[in-house]
Amino acid sequence: MPKHKPKRSAPTIDMTAMCDVAFLLLTFFMLTAKAKPQELVVVDTPSSISETKLPDAGTLTIMVDKDGKVFLDMAGQHTRMDLISAMNSTYQMGLTQKEMNVFSIVGGFGVPRNQLKRFLDVEPSERAKFPSTGIPIDSVDVNKSELANWIHNARLSQFRMKQEGKVKEEYVIVVKADANTPYPAVQSVINTLVDINVNKFNLITSMEGKPGAEGKK
User: Fold this and answer.
1) What does the alpha-carbon distance between residue 1 and residue 208 come to, in Å, rounded to a whole number?
2) pLDDT 10s digits, 111-120
3) Domain residues of the chain, as ranges?
4) Percentages helix, strand, coil for the chain, rounded to the nearest 5?
5) CA distance linking residue 84 with residue 100, whole number of Å
6) For 4-60, what is each residue's pLDDT tens digit?
7) DSSP-assigned states of every residue in 11-72
8) Contact call for residues 106 and 120 (beta carbons, < 8 A)
9) According to the model, what pLDDT value does residue 27 have?
10) Which residues sit opposite 71 in a β-bridge?
11) If we measure between CA atoms, which residue out of 134, 156, 160, 159 comes closest to residue 147?
12) How confident is the model at residue 173 (pLDDT cuts 50, 70, 90)?
């Protein structure tokens, strides 16, 4: 009696479930992702061989462009909202709730306090064209220095947010200056930090190869 050979067919894999998961993840990331605000100033940092890496979050960044103008940016929407509420109340800046909401997500800024309201009212697409004169620094009286006021109050806000459990760490202060920035402008920023008892901060540089690294294998 001849043997009966079963008909063989190629195995099939149902990819429906995998496709559903892939599109679900894609939709999730599209809905939750936040676009990074455009930087108001382009800073070409000097190079160094330092390998120290800055944290991904919890930084307060002081940017100094090649003309010596100072800009400020800080992480954390909760902290920014607490900061602008305190500054608006203390210095009578006349900001509305809508404008303070914009400040909490706007990114960096480099205008005096009396121009911040107009800066926040500008359309996002036009904000990069806003004439920025930089945040004023008073090298004689630190109490009159707007940069010192912003940094001091930002650190207080971050501390309050940490106490409330909304952030995990206090601010790491970083200075990001252009390679062509006049040295007196950078020194003024450093002096301001020292005057408000900020004695630990980082200078941002670009990575370059270590001397003699080319000859190593």
Assistant:
1) 81
2) 999 999 999 9
3) 66-207
4) 40, 10, 45
5) 6
6) 666 666 666 666 677 777 777 777 766 665 555 555 565 555 555 555 566 666 889
7) -----HHHHHHHHHHHHHHHHH--PPPPPSS---PPEE---PPPPSSSEEEEEE-TT--EEE
8) yes
9) 78
10) 63
11) 134
12) very high
Strands (E), the chain: 47-48, 59-64, 70-74, 172-177, 202-203, 206-207
| Amino acid at position 93, single letter | M
- Structure tokens that stand for 25 in this block: 């993840």
Q: Order of strands across the sheet with 70-74?
A: 70-74, 59-64, 172-177, 202-203
> For residue 140, what is the enclosing H or E element?
none
Identity (one letter) of the amino acid at 41? V
Q: Which residues contact 202 (CB under 8 A, 6 or more apart)?
A: 52, 54, 172, 173, 174, 175
Structural tokens at position 156: 């207080």
Q: Which amino acid is at 188?
A: S
Rounded to the nearest 5°, which phi and psi values hold at 47?
-95, 155
Rounded to 10 degrees, what is the CA torsion of 67, 69, 70, 75? Answer: -80
Find, among 104, 38, 33, 109, the residue nearest to 75 by Cα.
Answer: 104
